[in-house]
Amino acid sequence: MSIEKKEFKPLIVAFCCNWCSYAGADLAGTSRLAYPAEIKIIRVPCSCRVNPMFVLRAFQRGADGVIIAGCHPGDCHYTSGNYFARRRMTMLFSMLDFFGIERERTRVDWVSAAEGVKFSTVMNDFSKKIHELGENRRLGDLRCKQTIDR
Amino acid sequence: MLQKQQLQAETIRRISGVNTRKCMKCGKCTATCPAHSEMDISPHRFVSMVENNEIDALMSSDSLWKCLSCFACVERCPRGVEPANLIEAVRVTAVRMQNRNRLLPENIPSLLNNKLPQQALVSAFRKYSK
Amino acid sequence: MTFDYYPGCTLKTKAKELDIHARSAAEALGIKLEELTDWQCCGAVYPMAKDEIATRLSSVRALAASRDNGRDLLTLCSACHHVIKRVNNDMQTDEEIRTKVNNYMSPETEYHGETKVVHYLEMLRDTIGFDTIRQRAVKPLTGKKIGAYYGCLLLRPNKVMAFDNPENPTVLEDFIRALGAEPVIYPYRNECCGGYISLENNELSAKKCDQITVSALENKADMLITACPLCMYNLDANTNSEHKTKLPIVYFTELLAQVLDI
Amino acid sequence: MQRIGVFVCWCGTNIAATVDIDTVVEAMKREPGVVHSSDYQYMCSEAGQSRIRNAIKEHNLTGIVVCACSPRMHETTFRKAAKAAGLNEFMVEIANIREHCAWIHKDRTEATEKAVVLARTAVAKLNLNKPLTPGTSDVVKRALVIGGGIAGIQSALDIAEAGYQVDIVEKEPTIGGKMAQLDKTFPTLDCAACILTPKMVEAAQHDNINLITYSEVDSVSGFVGNFTVKIRKKARSVKADICSGCGICTEKCPSKKAKSEFNMGLNNRSAIYIPFAQAIPNVPVIDRDQCIKFKTGKCGLCAKVCPADAIDFSQQDEIIEQKYGAVVLATGFKPIKLDNFDEYSYAASQDVITSLELERIMNAAGPTGGKLLRPSDKKHPHTMVFVQCVGSRDTTGCGKTYCSKICCMYTAKHAMLIREKYPDIDVHVFYIDVRTPGKNFDEFYRRAAEDYGVNYIKGMVGKVAPTNGKLMVQGSDLIADRQVIIEADMVVLATAIEPDQTAKSLATMLTASIDTNNFFTEAHPKLRPVESPTAGVFLSGVCQGPKDIPETVAQASAAAVKVVGLLSKDKLVSNPCVAGSNELLCNGCSNCQHVCPYGAIDYVEKEFRINGKIKIRRVAQVNEAVCQGCGACTVVCPSGAMDLKGFTNQQIMAEVDAICR
Amino acid sequence: MQTNNRPVKEIAQEIFAENQAERILGWKRGEFFYDNSPAVFSAADELQEFVYDAFCGSNLSKFLVKEAAKEGRIAVLLKPCDRYSFNQLVKEHRIDKENVLPIEIDCDGMVDIDKVRALGIKGIKSISADGDQLTIETVYGQKNCSKEDVLLLKCQTCKDRTGGDRFALVREIEEMSSVERYEFWRSELSKCIRCNACRNVCPACTCEKCVFDNDKSGIANKANSDSFEESLYHMIRAFHVAGRCTDCGECSRVCPQGIPLHLINRKVIKDLNEFYGEYQAGADDSSVGPLTSYELDDVEPDIVMNRGGGR
Fold first, then answer.
1. Where are the domains of chain B?
2. Among C73, C140, D275, E27, which is most buried by a count of CB atoms within 10 Å?
3. Between chain A and chain D, how many beta carbons pairs sit less than 8 Å apart?
């Protein structure tokens, strides 16, 4: 087994609400505003669909960062979804912090369908932060990690 | 100079508890003030001058000593600005400076009459002197 | 029922009538007023600046003493009522003032605004009831037209004083009715008489007093009543003599005692 | 096990330039469930779609993944293609390898790797997809309009014109609302009655409109397309069907001490009354609190004089039940009470009036026959003061925090009309700001000031003191920086407006949300301003927020279009991606109900057979016609009973796993 | 212990005597004097076994989910802390209130036998409480100790009795550095044997089927493959009870490994209070909880990044 040091390639999961942030990501694409390829987007109807279990699952399976993007408060397609998401994620992040998981591994941001630039900026910034933090060792589940090279 | 005024204005805003930005410049305070005829700076201008850190002019204003503390402006302000608190805060700031006591004990005897209630004296000292 | 009673300095000297009749009337109506021992002057003006701590202490001492006695604190002078009630409110709501005051006094038990401050008129209205007074009226003032002069301190700011409708108060009018007289409603009954400024600028005070008395006379008042020694002094000293003869001004407690025939 | 086909689109060079298509196609062949993987230059073209259709048939596919542009672009296209080949349209997943990959990454290796991940994520999700069928429900072709003011009338007329039945429920004895009380309307100064009453008549005579006046909504159940509404028809004590509206009863009625509501209490009316001459229906109503017959048992004069024998003292409230496909809320407004603003002496002096009272005084059919007279002594006034923003823009809790929007303009109107008719009257207007956004609005206001000499004073009034038969108005003139005292004969207060008190109870009945000021909330503040978040409930007029007549009418028509759009459908097809509860897991805790923005979740007591025993449990049931599929409920469900079709917990976790593999 | 100066047992007897309920949910003596356990009594003579003393720590509310669904009215004895759980369960419709007669009883703290033993007192035969003092009969004679020193962890910071700062320990952990916190929890949670006692005793965990037992939930797992998987279990559990946990402290009381699990819930409660205003789950049986409501001007999630505490 070689102990060659590999370059750290983080894995970032982004949950984007269908109505604002996913469309914002589309706009970033149409405008050719680059952000790192390590960011992979999962489409959900609303930020309130994101169960904290999904975030924990991502970390458990080896994600190095998780970001949730939704409509700006007041603009939710479903009027109140992002308000619930805001409370839930605040509580989840605080709990993760309490367990000693690095605070910066999680983030919530509000990106509208018109904010392609913001989408790209937020993703670049978040990715930069995850690069600084390095690999998520504290929450990764070893059992899952081993299956990576199948 | 400007910096000094800014600091003073900050103190005034703090000790008065007044958020001058809440003022929507409707002028109801000035409309309501029973002492307005004696004032060189109207209550509504007090609010905007503190907001704009124009403290020197306020400190030398006669209005400081004309406010009756009747709270009519506080009661009627539609935005909850409390101009009377602001005027008192400026007055207090003025009085606290050296040699700025307005009412001196040596002036009292000439003001006395046998009907004057104690509270008139006490309140005058509280309002006009350190 | 027993209240702790805070007379204040003026009621001990220049406003004895306000005090004496209040005590006798209360006694006649079955209310016991226990004068607080060792009360100090409240300072006569409420210190609006939040960093004025020492000027709040005498009020807090009275309030804390009343709390320890387990009684409500009854006041009579408008100025004292205003100052004590507002300082009490500070102690309830302003954490910074509360901490500083308690640090200053280091009392055995910290004071947090537990005491209820009651004005004599509130006691008449809420504890005794104006109906009772009407029934007890031995010499009702039938046919008298009396104007109530509220002044500022009892009513404002309503958010803290919570005494009556600040723009259209009714407690003194109801009181006047209970005495068998007819209340005169005139628009300047809640406007300031300029009492606080009478030492500094009695010209302005005179102007304000004039506005009040003219308005009361125009609405056919025979006399004015007040609860405030400073208003009393000011209206007396700064009203022109012509109006003064037409419109005597007395403390409301004097009339109460008179009607109860004490 | 699914049989999945993967179709990778080149999008010309848009994708193919940065993503190695072959690598993606080959990688997908190794994914579980995938039985076919191919590529084409333009998948969205007819040729591309036909390849998909053929592959579905040829390989007997159960689902397809299209790796192409954003689903927001062509998801519908590919779903149609799948459907055409006999596949359920919800067995289609899109991997967005254009906007989210090819267009933003330059490095070919990196982009290809990411495309593979995105594709396998879609495959992972599709493996768990289930065919979904959109639910359908019938639409009752009838609309209910609550409120018979100009907003309600306009909405009803537009819906009726489109050929649908409409009921207007109005709580007062007549339709017409606040507009009927107005004298003239800004900025054109045409008379309100002249433009309103024809509309009232039109509504009354329209074959498709049914007026239910003197009635209130008692309860509402059901959902979009199928509301069941109970309406309480209050007893008029007059048989509306045989009354001829001759009005003899109102003339002969001996009880004439009730304050006229229509004239803002400025004069009296009889106990049996018709609110105003042009009332519709023109049928009197007996005010039972005032009627001598009802109070003492004696009298009954109206019954004696009625030529049609229409008086019925024994009439009872009646409950009507009716089904509706859509509901329009047009409950309007009222001026606030002025109890918190006694400094203006509204209660102390009769000559201090609200603007709506002035409308009645100026109106030819009003209590003074249109002559401007002081209410106290019926004398001609010489000086009038208008005060703006009375109770509006007040953050102290005494009034309303918002701008009532209409006051600036109607005050300009009042001032102008007075100066025009009585040039001898001095008119002063105290204002904080004059707000005149609107067509010809600012010109109108400036005309009042410039051509008619209305004295606009920037400042506020502090006190109005009734003195010697005059009103001493103490105000500020901020431009001159002085206090002014104006000796006025009349003071007119531009009183803030607030939603009618019925809004709150209706909001509860309809689960239509209201804001802190009790205005109805719109589904989206910009894009869905005439819909309530509750499907099938629409908003018309001031009940949604302060607005003037043209805006109200515009919104009323917009709401009508929305209603017509809804009623024109025979069936409502609902989005099948809705929440559903697994009743066996449901705890009955109500958490989901609390967070549902649409009131789509109900609870029922249901019998279950558990281990041979019958057990009654409280379980959640989602009304699929009402649910919009946000998923808020799924997260608060502790047992995981609540799930969202199309975005199930398992599907999303499979996506997470696929990305993190 | 007494309530309204009457022995609780007398109250229980009265319930049967006056036919107020058909069954009573209370505690009965266990094998040892210190392991009293919850029990349902359905006749007066069964009350011989009834006990209410300093070892009745267990919260009876949860048992009502099953018991109240059965035929016949049931009376339940609720200590002040248990009352919250009761209300919360009523709020969530888990208990049919109509079928329950709640009896509030006084409590001056429950004793942790392990803490008595830790004082070096051996051969304990019985313990009786006399005000603040405990009298301990041992085979080596009588011993005394202060009750305050041997209270159950949850009783030391009782919401109703002491008014002590129940968040002190949470604060201490917050002040640690991120790595210290991680190590703290890693070492605590690595002790977890996944016996599920915390879940089984928790009055907020009354799901028809727990997600951890449901293969379809995607998070079901019975055995741990890595020590930190346990923290996921506890995180998910804490999140599931967030806003509903009344801080009854049962989780820590029953943990055989002595993991301070209640601290996780307290952290959540502390955050909810700080972010969204004071809220006590179960203070009433109708209010809507903080995670099923919102305000337009709630704090943004980045408050977690920007506030104090160790990094």
1. 2-99, 102-130
2. C73
3. 135
Residue D655 belongs to some domain of the structure: no
Nearest CA in chain E to A74: E296
pTM of the model: 0.72
Mark which of E150, E177, E211 sits at the end of a domain: E150
Interface test with C, best of B75, B119, B121 (most C CBs within 10 A): B119
Q: What is the ipTM of this complex?
A: 0.66
Domain residue spans of chain C? 2-120, 136-260
Q: For A107-119, write each residue's pLDDT tens digit.
A: 999 998 888 899 9
Report d(CA D154, CA A33) in Å as an integer: 48
Q: How far is CA D517 from the centre of its chain?
A: 14
Per-residue HEC secondary structure of D476-541 comes to: EECCCCEEEEEEECEEEEEECEEECCHHHHHHHHHCCCECCCCCECCCECCCECCECCCCCEEECH
pLDDT at position E221 is: 62
Q: What are the pLDDT digits (tens) for E92-116?
A: 999 988 899 999 998 888 998 888 8
Give me the domain span that covers residue D179: 142-234+317-332+500-567
Rounded Cα distance, E207 and D446, in Å: 69
Q: Reply yes or no: is the peptide bond before residue B109 cis, omega within 30 of 0.
A: no
Position E310 scores a pLDDT of 61
Residues 6+ apart with CB under 8 A from E66: none
pLDDT (0 to 100) of residue D75? 92
Residues D59 and D5: beta-carbon distance below 8 Å: yes
Quote the strand ranges of D575-636, DSSP E. 579-581, 601-610, 613-622
Q: How far apart are CA D35 and CA D3, in angstroms?
A: 6
C-alpha dist (Å) from residue C164 to C157, C167, E232: 11, 9, 59
Contacts with A, E 101-120, CB within 8 Å: none
Q: Indicate the class that CATH gives domain B2-99.
A: mainly alpha
Beta strands in chain E (DSSP E): 2-3, 6-7, 23-28, 37-41, 74-78, 100-104, 124-130, 133-138, 141-146
Strand partners, D7: D38, D66
Q: Which of A22, A26, A50, A123 to mutate to test the interface with D (most CBs of D within 10 A)?
A: A26
pLDDT tens digits, D312-326: 999 999 999 999 999
**Predicted confidence (pLDDT) at residue B100 exceeds the cutoff of 50:** yes
Nearest-neighbour CA in chain E from A33: distance (Å)? 25
Q: Is the pLDDT of residue A134 over 60?
A: yes
Sign of CA dihedral D163, D168, D174, D178: negative
Asked whether residue E239 falls in the same domain as residue E294, the answer is: yes
For residue D659, tell me if it sits in a domain: no
CATH for A12-149 (3.40.50, 1.10.10, 3.30.540, 2.60.40): 3.40.50
CATH 1.20.1050.140 fits C2-120, yes or no: yes
Specify the fold of C136-260: Rossmann fold (3.40.50)
Helix %, strand %, coil % of chain E (to 5): 40, 15, 45
Mean pLDDT of A11-26: 93
| Average confidence (pLDDT) over A59-87 | 90
Chain B environment of C206 (Cβ under 8 Å): none
pLDDT of residue E223 exceeding 60: no
Domain boundary residue, one of D102, D126, D150: D126
pLDDT at A138 over 90: no
Let me know whether D439 and D366 are in one domain.
Answer: yes
Residues D350 and D490 occupy one common structural domain? yes
E1 within a domain of the structure (yes/no): no
C-alpha D17/C-alpha D98 separation (Å) is 11
Q: What is the pLDDT of residue A146?
A: 43
For C57-71, C145-159, D447-461, E40-54, which range has the lowest pLDDT when averaged over its residues? E40-54
User: Which residue shows structure tokens 């044997």?
Assistant: E193
Q: What SS3 class is residue D319?
A: strand
Residue D135 lies in a domain: no
